[in-house]
Amino acid sequence: ADSGDAELELSVVRHQPEELEELLARTKFSKKELQSLYRGFKNECPSGLVDEETFKLIYSQFFPQGDATAYAHFLFDAFDADGNGAICFQDFAVGLSVLLRGTVQQKLTWAFNLYDVNKDGCITKEEMLEIVRSIYDMLGRSTSPPPRDSAPSEHVEIFFQKMDRNGDGVVTFEEFLETCQQ
Amino acid sequence: MAAGVAAWLPFARAAAIGWMPVASCPMPLAPTEKNKRQDELIILNVSGRRFQTWRTTLERYPDTLLGSTEKEFFFNEDTKEYFFDRDPEVFRCILNFYRTGKLHYPRYECISAYDEELAFYGILPEIIGDCCYEEYKDRKRENAERLMDDNDSENNQEGSMPSLSFRQTMWRAFENPHTSTLALVFYYVTGFFIAVSVITNVVETVPCGTVPGNKELSCGERYAVAFFCLDTACVMIFTVEYLLRLFAAPSRYRFIRSVMSIIDVVAIMPYYIGLVMTNNEDVSGAFVTLRVFRVFRIFKFSRHSQGLRILGYTLKSCASELGFLLFSLTMAIIIFATVMFYAEKGSSASKFTSIPASFWYTIVTMTTLGYGDMVPKTIAGKIFGSICSLSGVLVIALPVPVIVSNFSRIYHQNQRADKRRAQKKARLARIRVAKTGSSNAYLHSKRNGLLNEALELTGSTEDEQHMTKGTSLIESQHHHLLHCLEKTTGLSYLVDDPLLSVRTSTIKNHEFIDEQLFEQNCMESSMQNYPSSRSPSLSSHHGLTTSCCSRRNKKTTHLPNSSVPATRLRSMQELSTIHIQCSEQPSLTTSRSSLNMKSDDGLRPNCKTAQITTAIISIPTPPALTPEGESRPPPSSPSHPTNIPTTTTSNIVKVSAL
């Protein structure tokens, strides 16, 4: 078991991304852009992998007034395409490519994926509530007027009503698409 | 925000798409990126070593020199790189800060050099990473202490010059016996008497001889009178000393409370009390006890011995360790005493009669003394006794190294302070020699200059060339500056040549008279000069003016003429227009160093006055000399740059050269 752990550690310590050419094919970035992206990525994570803790730390720096860890967790799950608990540069680049250069459909697919916490193909009210609550947490308390404790649930009510066309208590991908594209 | 994290900002912004489905309000527009450049490599040439980095790396910290447009001042058009004339070693650390977001402090670097570099690049030292921050702060504190120390002792030395009151001199004499011979004598005398007093205390208890009746007498009883006299003498000396110190002390209340004065009082009190309570049987017992306090006189030696003071100071500073030692010992003693008492309770004729009686055994055993007057007899007692002695060693050995290291640290600090003081004296002496050397050089050249002026007036020029050789450009500029200063204030440094001093007065008269002439010349030349300000024939010492004078008004305004002040003003403006020439890096820095100035600003305020004075200086000499002025290489004596003021542009430019 020990040697196995050691092996695992070794393989995690340094991760090499895919070839630049392959990434060029998979994403819509130019070579220079990919280079610049990778430099920034590698600078922050010399090992080539971002684990959840580091990701939360980085993301929290952008939102100092509130607690961004919950939302960062969801975001991490959305980015971590292969679900191995770490974001490698491919995940990062591919995700970013979708967000920045993708079609509206692709972007909405990504957003749906974000909201669908357990990745079962539909968004329940609880899932949406979790996401919205995490967004409010990120905001923090120092707004004026400060957010009420019931704000997330109210927020979810409004939107869930809008999205759930057939009123079956879950939002499917089609309903999601329809609502957002209006 | 940390440097690397900024790289994630585009990611975070992109991820914001996730909020859109549940957004209550429409999203604001994104800021447009003005002139989005492709990221390019910048070359930073620091004293010849080339560093390269991306432009965006530097722009992570826009409030520093490298991150802002301030670096454009250092851009070299010819080589298309940014040139910094600074230390490349430290620059490595600074550039790493931009790259990694963490500023490190290299241990081999001098703290003040590092601080200077940080200040130059506009980086706050507080940003230094945790790994190096402690080291940085420690060294900074050490350095500050050292500087303060130096300043203090410097002040002390210089403070002796201003008149001190008698009281202050006395106090200084007491505190520092090396200040005068009288103080030294006093110091040794008191030391001697302390020794005498202690020895008499010791000797008077030695038995010496018998008296008929077979009774052993101590020396004190046998030679009572002699000892009494000695004692009186010592106490008188000590009293006088104490009173003198009390008188001289700057703060009497504080002096009374200080440890040394308490020791003094305790040392002499028994004698006076003894005088008062003579032969009263009841209190003679107490009186005898009081005599014990006489032994405290030995502590008076601590004024004479630095080591003793250090020891005392160490003990004071290790108070907590000592306290811990005491506490743990007490705990252990009580525990073991109790155990031994109950273990030995059974045995007959045991000396362990009570727990307090066992304390003595425990202490003697734990400190490994082992007198043997109390020994356990039972087996259990022996077992616990051995445990007691083993643990004693441990308990005592633990706090001792801490105390020892404290002592060693303080002792070495003191050694260092003494060494520094000795070295400082030598260093200051050398610096003083250098300073007088430079002022002597100035006076020498001034003498030459005045001689030249005198000669010029009379028309003879042979000796001039002879005089002017041998002074460098920097020196000549420095001397010119000092000359300007003299002119500003109207005072002058002493030139020890009576003949010359007469001539200088005549020269001054000429200067004022010819101002009108100058004004006209200025008018003409200002017309000519302005367009030709970049004439390449200008001599190199213009560079100096560019940096300071050119920052003032850059335009000539043709004022209506006539008033003398107006002339000066105009000439000043005119002088300032002339130097936009920036071919050479201003010898400003070099002249600054040679002037030993501590701040940049020292030079600039002088500029204004200097310009006025150059106007004055510039007047006088008859135009006949102008051609000569042109042909001669940059002049060394102050009068030469003044040759000017006439029609030739290059000469006028020289005027403005500070």
From TrEMBL, chain A:
GO molecular function: calcium ion binding; DNA-binding transcription repressor activity, RNA polymerase II-specific; potassium channel regulator activity; RNA polymerase II cis-regulatory region sequence-specific DNA binding
Occurrences of domain EF-hand (ranges): 67-102, 103-138, 151-182
Stretches of the chain forming a coiled coil according to its record: none
Keywords of the record: Calcium, Lipoprotein, Metal-binding, Myristate, Repeat
Domain of life: Eukaryota
Gene Ontology CC annotation, any one: nucleus
SMART domains: EFh (SM00054)
GO process annotations (BP): regulation of potassium ion transmembrane transport
Transmembrane segments: none
Keyword Metal-binding: yes
Pfam family of the protein (one): EF-hand_5
CDD domains referenced in this protein's UniProt entry, alphabetically: EFh
InterPro entries recorded: EF-hand-dom_pair, EF_Hand_1_Ca_BS, EF_hand_dom, Recoverin
Family: Belongs to the recoverin family.
Protein name, UniProt field: CSEN protein
Automatic annotation (TrEMBL), chain B:
UniProt cross-references to CDD domains, sorted A to Z: BTB_POZ_KCND3
GO cellular component: dendritic spine; neuronal cell body; postsynaptic membrane; voltage-gated potassium channel complex
Membrane topology according to the record: Multi-pass membrane protein
BTB domain residues: 40-139
GO biological process per UniProt: action potential; potassium ion export across plasma membrane; protein homooligomerization
Pfam families xref list: BTB_2, DUF3399, Ion_trans, Shal-type
Single GO term (MF): metal ion binding
Keyword Lipid biosynthesis: no
Biased composition annotated in UniProt, kind: Low complexity: 531-540, 639-650
Keyword Oxidoreductase part of the UniProt annotation: no
Reactions catalysed, as given in the entry: K(+)(in) = K(+)(out)
Membrane-crossing segments per the record: 182-203, 223-244, 256-277, 322-343, 355-371, 383-404
Domain of life: Eukaryota
Biased composition range(s): Polar residues: 585-597
Subcellular compartments: Cell membrane; Cell projection, Dendrite
Residues of the signal peptide: 1-16
Gene3D superfamilies (UniProt xref): 1.10.287.70, Potassium Channel Kv1.1, Chain A, Voltage-gated potassium channels. Chain C
Keyword tags: Cell membrane, Cell projection, Ion channel, Ion transport, Membrane, Metal-binding, Phosphoprotein, Potassium, Potassium channel, Potassium transport, Signal, Transmembrane, Transmembrane helix, Transport, Voltage-gated channel, Zinc
Region described as Disordered: spans on this chain: 526-563, 585-604, 618-658
PANTHER family: POTASSIUM VOLTAGE-GATED CHANNEL SUBFAMILY D MEMBER 3, VOLTAGE-GATED POTASSIUM CHANNEL
Protein's UniProt name: KCND3 protein
